[in-house]
């Protein structure tokens, strides 16, 4: 026969439960348990007695829960009936400082042969194999890595300059000194860069976007060749020049430099900052033009090259990124269409007078990139 638990509340206990219900500032579970106890009370201070069936129907609570709360009250008292039993179990910490250090060191090392990168399961297996611990789940490994914000399966492409490189810092400071100059129409500062563009056409018609649905295009595409995009920008005026060529040769570069010279024919000298590519040589002019023309172009320009692994110092790279995001981030399969789209973008940007606010200075470089400077022993 099932044991019956009888709830008998004292005056003080009823006052405490009624206070919980009236204030409404307690957890919903505690509030519900207080309601159950008040309605189950069979003591002298309860005017009307209720059965479990009635309480279950009115409060929309199962009979089993009502019996459970009554049992807690009878066996363990009011506090346990309201709040439940405290968990007295003591969990032994499985991952201590030493094991955590081993996991971190392992995740920062080279993965085993046959694997391109570490995974959570691979790390868990390796930790056990090296007998750092008898067994461990990959979820425990994940928590350790998350705590240290480590992602050994992720890699980022990065241009890493060599440390303590005098040639790098010399070229860098030369570029940064040019960026400090005030605007001068007679000697403008222009940054120039270039990038390939893959021509890609659709094999099936796209489905335009509709209410609640994004536009869709097929995964299949057709390659239509590659062209080259030259970009030159004047950061202080927000002016830019773009040229699209079939190839990327010394002559293509020389013709683009000639185009810049024609557009700035009113300037006595043009300071041109660009990356140190093998096509960007002074001899390219003599391979393209007659000697008189080549010499006049050389006299027109002051060439400043960014250091090797220092293309981020070229502000034209910023303009190229904007071009890629705003205009070229789609499939274009015809060079003629590409030229039309890019020219429309150039006109739009030039009308906005979008300038580049360069803030990185030589003083910043000597602090933030101190590792690149040679150490001088006095």
TrEMBL record:
| InterPro entries reported for this sequence | Homeodomain-like_sf (IPR009057), Tc1-like_DDE_dom (IPR038717), Transpos_IS630-like (IPR047655)
SUPFAM superfamilies hit by this protein: Homeodomain-like
List all membrane-crossing ranges.
none
Q: Please name the Pfam families in this protein's record.
A: DDE_3 (PF13358), HTH_32 (PF13565)
Residues covered by the Tc1-like transposase DDE domain: 188-336
What superkingdom heads the lineage?
Answer: Archaea
Q: What's this protein's name?
A: IS630 family transposase
* Native organism: Methanolobus halotolerans
């Amino acid at each position: 026969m099932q044991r019956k638990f009888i709830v008998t509340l004292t005056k003080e206990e009823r006052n405490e439960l009624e206070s919980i219900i009236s204030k409404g500032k307690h957890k919903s579970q505690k509030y519900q348990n207080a309601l159950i106890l008040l309605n189950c009370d069979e003591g002298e201070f309860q005017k009307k007695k209720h059965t479990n069936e009635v309480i279950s129907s009115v409060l929309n609570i199962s009979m089993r829960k009502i019996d459970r709360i009554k049992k807690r009250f009878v066996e363990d008292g009011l506090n346990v009936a309201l709040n439940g039993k405290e968990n007295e179990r003591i969990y032994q910490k499985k991952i201590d400082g030493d094991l955590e250090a081993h996991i971190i060191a392992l995740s920062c090392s080279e993965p085993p042969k046959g694997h391109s990168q570490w995974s959570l399961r691979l790390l868990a297996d390796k930790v056990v194999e090296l007998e750092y611990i008898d067994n461990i789940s990959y979820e425990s490994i994940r928590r350790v890595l998350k705590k240290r914000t480590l992602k050994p399966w992720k890699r980022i492409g990065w241009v890493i300059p060599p440390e303590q490189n005098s040639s790098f810092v010399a070229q860098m400071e030369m570029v940064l000194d040019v960026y400090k100059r005030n605007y001068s129409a007679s000697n403008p500062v222009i940054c120039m860069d270039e990038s390939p563009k893959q021509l890609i056409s659709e094999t099936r018609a796209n489905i335009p976007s509709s209410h609640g649905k994004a536009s869709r295009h097929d995964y299949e595409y057709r390659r239509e060749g590659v062209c080259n995009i030259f970009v030159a920008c004047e950061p202080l005026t927000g002016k830019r020049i773009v040229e699209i060529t079939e190839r990327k040769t010394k002559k293509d570069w020389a013709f683009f430099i000639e185009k810049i010279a024609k557009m700035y024919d009113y300037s006595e000298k043009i300071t041109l900052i660009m990356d140190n590519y093998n096509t960007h040589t002074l001899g390219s002019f003599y391979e393209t033009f007659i000697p008189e023309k080549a010499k006049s172009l050389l006299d027109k320009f002051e060439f400043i090259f960014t250091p090797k692994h220092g293309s981020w110092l070229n502000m034209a790279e910023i303009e190229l990124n904007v071009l890629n995001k705003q205009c070229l981030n789609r499939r274009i399969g015809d060079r003629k269409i590409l030229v039309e789209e890019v020219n429309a973008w150039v006109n739009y940007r030039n009308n906005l007078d979008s300038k580049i606010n360069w803030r990185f200075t030589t003083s910043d470089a000597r602090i933030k990139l101190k590792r690149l400077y040679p150490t001088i022993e006095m």
